[in-house]
Amino acid sequence: MRPVSVLALAGAAAVSMSVLSACGGDEDKADAAGAIPVTATDDTCEVAKTDLTAGKTTFKVTNKGSKVNEFEVLKPDGKILAERENIGPGTSVDFVVNLPAGQFRLLCSAGQTGKGPSQNVTVTGRAGGGADARLTEAADDYKAFVIARLDDTIAKTREFVEAVKADDVAKAKELYAPSRVGWETIEPVAEKFGDIDPKVDAREADLSAAEKKDWSGWHLLEKALWKDGSVKGKEKYGDRLLADLETLKSRLPGLTLDPVNDMAGGAKELLDEVATGKVTGEEEAFSHTDLVDFKANVDGAKKIYELLKPVVQERDAQLASDLDDNFAQVEALLKKHEKGDGYVSYDKVGKDDRKELADAVNALGEPLSKLAEVVAK
Q1: What are the angstrom distances between the C-alpha of 66 and each of 17, 47, 118, 212?
Q2: What is the Cα–Cα distance from 153 to 239, expressed in whole angstroms?
Q3: 15 CB burial (10 A radius; 0-12, 13-18, 19+)
Q4: Structure confidence by residue, pLDDT tens digits, 61-76
Q5: Distance separating alpha carbons of residues 46 and 60, to the nearest angstrom
Q6: Residues 160, 183: contact at Cβ < 8 Å?
Q7: Contact present, 260 and 98 (Cβ < 8 Å)
Q8: 105, containing H or E segment
Q9: Which secondary-structure segment (H or E) carries 98?
Q10: What is the reported pTM?
Q11: DSSP label at 9?
Q12: Would you say 158 and 122 are in contact if contact means Cβ atoms under 8 Å apart?
C-alpha cells in the first residue's frame, strides 16, 4: 500500500517535473504528438477521447487539483490493467499503455485512494505489427520470477507466523523484514489483486476509523511487536496473512503479464513506492526496517529492466546507459547503510542521508519513466 504525505507529494512532484509539459487545449482529441489529454482535478476526470484504437496509447495526464493523483486503466471486472501514480498538483505526465480491444474505465484518484471519478472508453481494432519474441520471452521469465518471489514470501512468512503464534517477540522481529522482501519486489503485480493487497499490506495511518475495524496483515503485527511488545492473541492475524498470500498464489498461474503495462510500468511503480513510503520512513513506522523494503523495490525494478535490456539497448542505447548508471548510484548509497545481513534502523538515518537517497531515487525515476515508451515502440 502506498502512503501519501507532504514529503511524498514533494517527491512525486520532483519526479513528475522531469516530464512536465503543457497539456494543450483540453478540447483537442489528441495533442501534436498524438497523446490523449486527460485532465484530473480533486473531483473530476476528463478524457478528451473515448473511442480508442488498440495498441500503444499515450495519455497525457495533467493534475489541476490540489492533491497528488493517480490514473488507472481498469478492466470491466475492476482489476487494474495499468496505472500511473504520484502525479503531483500542477504537473503533467505522459503515460504509455498497451491497450487490447475491449471496454475499459479510466479513473482519476485524488489522494491515491483507488477511488474517484472515471470515464468509460471503448478500444477497437488490433495492435499493429508482430510481437517481438524477446519481449514475449521477457514476460514469461518475469512471470516465473514473480511466482518464485511469492513462494519465497510465503515460506518466510510461515516462519514469521510461527514465531508470532509462539509469542516469541525477538524471533518474530528478526523474521518480520525478511518475510516482506519477496512481496516488496513484486508489489505492482500483487496490487493487481485489489482485494488481497489491503488485507496484507495496509498501514494503520492510511485507514479510516471504519476500515481500522477490519485491519489485518503485516503492519498490524509490526505494531504489536514494536509498540506493544507482544503478539499474544494475534495468532489469527498470522493465519489470515498466510491464507491471503496463498490465495494470491492460486491466482498467479492464470495471470498474463504485458511487457509495457506490467513490466515497464511496474518498474516505475516500484520506484514510486520508494519515493512515497521508504524514503519518507512512513512504510515501516514501528520497525524502521524501511531500507530492507527500499532494496527490495529497487531490486524488483532492476530485475524488470534486466529482462527488457536487450530490447532497450537496441532501441535506445543512451537510455540503457542512463539506467545502468542510476541503478548503480542507488545501490551504492544503499550499501553505505548496510549492517550485517540487513540495514541500519531507518530512524538512525539522518536528514542529509535521506535527502541523498531521495535525490538518487528521483534521478533514477526520470529515465525509468521512459522505459515503457521504448518497449512499446
Answers
A1: 16, 19, 18, 26
A2: 14
A3: buried
A4: 999 999 999 999 999 9
A5: 11
A6: no
A7: yes
A8: strand 102-110
A9: strand 92-99
A10: 0.85
A11: H
A12: no
